[in-house]
Amino acid sequence: MRLTRQMLALTGAVAVLALAGCGSGGTGSEVPATATGSLEHLAAEAKCKPDMQTDADTIRQAICKKGKEQYVLATFATDRGQREWIDMAKDYGGFYLVGRKWVAVGEENVLDDLRGRLGGDVEEGIDHSTMDHGGGAHASGHAGHGG
Q: Tens digit of pLDDT for each residue in 13-34?
C-alpha cells in the first residue's frame, strides 16, 4: 500500500507541475522538493532573517521581508495543528504556501518566488468579507485564534 501511495503522490505531483507549466509565463523554473525543518532552517533556505513573533510549543511564527514585500512564515508541532490553523486562516482570504508542518502567508507573487526556494503547494483562502452571512456564521471556531 505504501508503494501505491507513493505512486499516487508522484503522479499527482507530476500532474500539478505539468499544469503549472502551462500558461505560467514560461519561466521554465522547476519547483524543488518541499523543504522541511525548523523555522530557522526554512528561513535560511528562503534567504530570510526571521523576525520572531510567536515562539510557542505548538506554533512558531516569524515575519520575513522580500524587498518591500513581507510574508509570515510559521512552523507547527503537528500536522493536525497546521491543518486546523490553515483551515481557520483561509476564512480570511489570502494565499498560503504549504509544506509539511510549515506555511508561508503573503501576496501571491511573493509566494510564487518563495515556492521556487521551498517547494510546497499554494492554497488560496476564501474572502468572506464581501458575503452576507446573516449573523453569527463565524461565531464558532474562532475562539482562541491567536494573531
A: 323 323 333 333 334 468 899 9
Between the CA of residue 87 and those of 22, 25, 55, 94, what are the distances in Å? Answer: 28, 30, 21, 12
Residue 72 to residue 104: CA distance in whole angstroms: 5
- SS3 state of residue 40: helix
In sequence order, what DSSP letters do the residues of 67-98 get, joined into one string? Answer: TTEEEEEEEESSHHHHHHHHHHHTTB--EEEE
Mind listing the pLDDT tens digit for each residue in 49-74? 999 999 999 999 999 998 888 999 99
Residue 78: C-alpha distances to residues 27, 55, 66, 104, 136 (Å): 34, 15, 28, 16, 30
pTM: 0.68
Find where cell 508542518 sits: 101
Pairing label, strands 102-106, 69-76 = antiparallel
In the block, cell 519547483 appears at: 31
The grid coordinates listed for 17 are: 507541475
State CA 109 to chain mean position distance.
13
How many C-beta atoms lie closer than 10 Å to residue 88's C-beta? 14
Question: CA triplet 90, 46, 62: central angle to 5 degrees?
Answer: 55
State CA 47 to chain mean position distance: 17
